[in-house]
Amino acid sequence: MPRNYTRKTTWGQTPLAEMESAGAEVMQGKMSLRKAGRDRNIDKTTLKRFIKKKKKQVKVTERYIRRLEFHLSKIEELYEAYCLQRRLRDGANKMVKAYNASLGSKEARESLTEANKGYKEYTENMCVLESELENQLGEFHIKMKGLAGFARLCAGDQYEIFMRYGRQRWKLRGKIEINSKQVWDSEEMVLLPLVNDFLSVKVTELKSLANHVVVGSVSCETKDLFAALSQTVAVDINDLGTVKLSLEVTWNPFDKDDQGSMASSVNKAPTVSKRFSTIFNQSPPDTPSLREQAFYNMLRRHEELENGTAWSNSSESSDDSSSPQLSAGGPRNATHHEGNLQTRKLVAWTTL
User: Fold this and answer.
1) Do 156 and 18 reside in the same domain of the chain?
2) Do residues 42 and 36 touch, judged by C-beta distance below 8 A?
3) Is 231 left (phi over 0), alpha (psi -120 to 50) or beta?
């Protein structure tokens, strides 16, 4: 049954579709308020009140769009700074490899120390940028929908679900009732997105006080959860896929309390704020001196003699070092994720 827009007149009710059509023509300037109401047999006062309400909604939407645009500009600024630090770190890494391959002169040892110092500094700057990016990613609102196990779930079974996302934890217990209804002690949770961490899920069946059976334990990436609309996703808990965990995920690009986030950013340590300001004000290194150019020419000749092995062992940051992906980049990802990919079982979300 279509919704109706009730008027306080003797003309009865006007369908909402008619009100929206008339209001759109008036707001677009195609028709006057009096003519639109007369053609559709709508009271002038009612149509005016409806248009006023729509204009308020448009203003709210426009303010939200401007807020999103400003938020996007901050993300792009972080991305540009991250790309700069990534290129500087790759250059420092190449210099370290080149100095290690050269003769052990005093100048080479001094330059190697400076290159190592620069590599460490750029890596720390990238960590600061990743931390700042995490503060701009908003939050995930997760709602528990239940377990899907077909014949695997029986009435009276009790399960415990433990989720770990960085330092964030969420533990909930549930029971399967006779009518296949599931009752959970906690159904909603808010998680803050992280750059270099997986969402680990562990499901345990509680059989008795001291007898617990682990149904499955998996780890999932969260990049697919960044969506404009709410989505219901499912993940296979065990290898056969007979038990699935269903969640409703809503991503909010802004924090729940912007004032709190602003206060937290103001209360940061002065060293972090100073370093963060210097990152954006940092420019690429100057042109090498004559001594450095001569040393580079010597390395280039040495490289030609060894078929390019001196400079080919650069860091495998990405296919294009000038535009790294923030979701898969960073120094912590290079050391932390490579080990986890060998021991963890990564699964993909399935959108329902």
Assistant:
1) no
2) yes
3) beta
Supply the pTM of this predicted model.
0.64
Final residue of a structural domain among 25, 44, 65: 65
Distance CA 173, CA 124 (A): 40
Given the structure tokens 């533990």, which residue do they identify?
Answer: 171
Quick check: 233 and 199 in contact, CB under 8 A? no
- Residues 255-281 have a mean pLDDT of 48
What per-residue confidence (pLDDT) applies to 322? 37
Residue 277 amino acid letter: S
Interval 128-144: pLDDT, tens: 999 999 999 999 999 99
Residues 198, 164: one domain? yes
Tell me the C-alpha to C-alpha distance, in Å, between residue 225 and each of 65, 219, 278, 281: 21, 14, 33, 33
Among the ranges given (140-144, 198-202, 321-325), the one the predictor scored with the smallest mean pLDDT: 321-325
Angstrom distance (rounded) from CA 148 to CA 180: 10
pLDDT tens digits, 206-231: 987 778 889 899 999 898 899 989 99
Nearest by Cα to 44 from 14, 82, 72, 74: 14
Number of residues in the chain: 352
Pairing of strands 231-236, 13-15: unpaired
Instruction: State how far the Cα of 182 lies from the Cα of 203, in Å rounded to an integer.
Output: 15
